Structure formats: structure tokens, C-alpha cells
Amino acid sequence: MSKVENGDEHDNFYHCEENETKETCNKCEVAKFRYPDGTVRLRNPHIELMDQDILYHLALGSGSHDLVEMFGDVKFVCMGGTPKRMEAFAYYIMKEIGHKLPTGTTLQDISQYSYRYSMFKVGPVLSVSHGMGIPSIGILLHEIIKLMYHSKARDPIFFRIGTCGGIGLEGGTVVISDDAVDEMGNHYYQVPMLGKPVRRPAKLDKRLVRELKGLADPEDPYDTIIGTTMCANDFYEGQGRTDGAFCDYTESEKMEYLTGLQSNGVKNIEMEVIPFAALTHHAGIRAAVVCVALLDRLKGDQVCAPKEVLDEWQIRPQKLVARYIRRYLQTKGRISFDGHGSMAVKSPRRFKLVQQESETFD
User: Fold this and answer.
1) Is the pLDDT of residue 13 over 70?
2) Quick one: fold of 33-360?
3) DSSP alpha helices (H): ranges in the chain?
4) Chain-centre distance of CA 66, in angstroms?
5) Domain extents for the chain?
6) Fewer Cβ atoms within 10 A, N terminus or C terminus of the chain?
7) Has 239 been labeled as part of a binding site?
8) Which one, of 315, 328, 359, 345, lies nearest residue 92 by Cα?
9) Is 38 annotated as contributing to ligand binding?
10) Does 349 appear as a known binding residue?
11) What is the pTM of this model?
12) Is residue 298 a contact partner of residue 262, using CB atoms and an 8 Å limit?
């Protein structure tokens, strides 16, 4: 697949190569859900009819905040489970891309009044926590995708940076997901809507996967592999663990299940890839998942590595994503962006109301 020579720099103008069809070309899928300038086209006609769109769980609103001013230059949205991890990533990526905060300022948690997620902006990079599990990341994705729409960000790329349990992998191995399945082996995200099940394909950007793998350094003292990731809806029984409060299967039955996953190409298990892949694909947003295995599930259920080892392992996916971001900005000739996530308020009254709504909304 190669870029069309039309003078436009945006990533959504592509045509298919000989071995790709319009049905399989992810770039063509992306282009269908973008405006010609690369901004996100929402698949919800109701939003444009609203007086303002309150992003409850981010403590932001389209009528209260100048979202174009605050987030219009965002190119990368990086997500991880905990606020602490994503704050650390914000500082790490700041150093990696050479971004400087204005004198007298510090990184600000933009969503501090939501008490649900944390969000930090470092130039073109948005670092945000997604919590744990399918419902939590699903809520965040709806609002982050709407945020990209309201801010008119062009061709954003989403990354999930996280941890996982490996299957037949040593602890510390980095896994780039090229496919996603649920506990039943389904390649889709099923959501009940109006009493009926709706299935959305869970697809990740194949080209992005290849580009990330190409940035793995042969000198890295660990392996970086590509493989299928299973998304579980539970940490214990849903992942076949025997150390939960309940367990109605034997150790041998657990091992039979895990080795069956391994024989089907599953490399790791986590709890967010299915909605992440499905909702970004449905929005026409390029996305990838990079996780580090904290243990080999074929050897046990509990994470026993020392804290200092775990801390170093958790930086490994961040390093790979940072390499991608740094290379992209260097290629585009943009290594530093203005702005550092400070508030841009359009309506003080609505700003206060949004804060109050986010603080009280359950």
C-alpha cells in the first residue's frame, strides 16, 4: 500500500497495492471515517445536534472548554491502566521527544476533577489512564474519540501500553498484538444495544504492527514478538487462574485450556484489547497494543518478580512506543510542539458546571 501523490501530507490518503483489496486494506477503512483534512468523522449524528457535549468522565465539555486550542495538535493518544504509570510515561515521553514546558509550569492532570481517569498532555502526545477491564476502557474510548472529533485533531494514532500474562513467554517479553480474541475465541466485541447483541470486529492496524516490530532493537536484552492477544473479562476465573476466591476446575483442566490457547497462536492474556481494537477500528483510527508479560502463565498464576524488576519491565513497551513517536516527529520535522495541556476555558459558567457534573456523576 503506498501513498497517493496528491500533495496532501495526511495519513488517510492511500491506495491499495496488488496484494491488497479494498475489503482488506486497513488504510481504506480508515479513510472512510475521516474528513478530507484527516479529522475524525463521528458515527453518531446526534452529537452535532447537541447544545454541548459533556465528556463526564474526563471533566471536559465542548461548550465549556476550547477543545481545539487544548487538543488540536494531538497526534498520539497513549493509554495505560493506572494514573501513576501514565504520569510516568508523560514525563518519559517529554524527555524522549525533547519537549520543554514553559518556564514556571508543570505537567497538569487535565482530568483531575473527574476522579476517574488521569490525562496529561506533552505536545502532540496525550497520556491517559484507562483503568482496568473492558467497561472502564470502553467508557474512556467513547469520550477520547469524541475528544478527537471536537478538537479537530488530524489522523490521531492510538496506543495501549500495558502489562499481561504470557503463554509460554518469559517474564519481560514484549508482545505486539496483531490479532485479538475473547475467552471464547471470537474476533469481535459484542455489546448489548437496546436488548440486542451487536458485534463489532476487533481489528488492529497491521502496518502499525510491522512498523513497531521494525523498531525493536537487536541490542535489547529481551525479546519483542508479534502474536494474538486474548482479552478476558475477569482477572481470576476468566483467565483460568486457580488462586481466586472461587475455582471450579482442576490444575490439569487449567493447563489443558492454556496449552490449547498456545496451540492456537495466543501469546498473552490481558483485559482490554478487544474493546480497544474494536472501537478504534469502528472509528477509523489506527491503533496498536504493546504489552509486557509479567509472568509465564504456563508456570504459575501469581506475579512473583521483585518490584524493581517489574518496574523495569513495565518501561519496555513505553520505550518501543516512544521510538515510534520520536521517529515520526523527526520524519515530519516536528520535534517540539507548543502547548502543555493548560486549560482553555470558553465559558466560565459552563466550565464550573462541567466540573460539578463530573464530580457528582455516577
Assistant:
1) no
2) Rossmann fold (3.40.50)
3) 26-32, 67-71, 83-97, 134-151, 206-214, 251-263, 273-283, 307-332, 348-360
4) 24
5) 33-360
6) C
7) yes
8) 315
9) no
10) no
11) 0.86
12) yes
